[in-house]
Write a structure and sequence with these properties.
The chain is built from 6 helices and no strands. By secondary structure, the chain is mainly α. The chain has one domain. The longest helix has 20 residues. It starts with a helix and ends with a helix.
Length: 100
C-alpha cells in the first residue's frame, strides 16, 4: 500500500509539472518510469518489458488508474480540450450502445 501511495505522489507531481503528461497517457507513463529508473528511454522496448518490474516501474494500467483518481480529486488538472471532446462524443457512444 505504501508503494502505491508513493507512485500516486509521483504521478501527481508529474501531472502538476507537465501539461503533455496530462494529455497523453504514454507521455505520463514514460515520465513515471524515468522517475523510477533513470535512462529508461535509452532501452529497447523488448528490454523494458523484460525488466520493467525489476527496475521498479509500475504497470501502465496502475499509472492510468492513478491519473484518473488524481483528475477526480483535482479537476483543474484535466485537459480542457479532451474533456470537451469526450462530452461531445457522449451522444454518439449512447447511440452506438443502444443501436449497435
Amino acid at each position: 500500500m505504501e508503494r502505491l501511495k508513493r507512485i500516486e505522489d509521483v504521478v501527481a507531481q508529474i501531472l502538476y509539472a507537465r501539461e503533455d503528461a496530462r494529455e497523453n497517457d504514454d507521455a505520463l507513463y514514460l515520465c513515471v518510469c524515468e522517475h523510477f529508473y533513470k535512462g529508461i528511454s535509452a532501452m529497447t522496448v523488448s528490454d523494458f518489458f523484460k525488466y520493467r518490474s525489476e527496475m521498479g516501474c509500475p504497470t501502465f494500467a496502475s499509472v492510468v488508474r492513478l491519473r484518473r483518481k488524481i483528475f477526480e480529486k483535482h479537476p483543474e488538472l484535466k485537459p480542457v480540450e479532451a474533456t470537451i471532446s469526450r462530452e461531445n462524443m457522449i451522444p454518439i457512444y449512447v447511440d452506438y450502445a443502444l443501436n449497435g
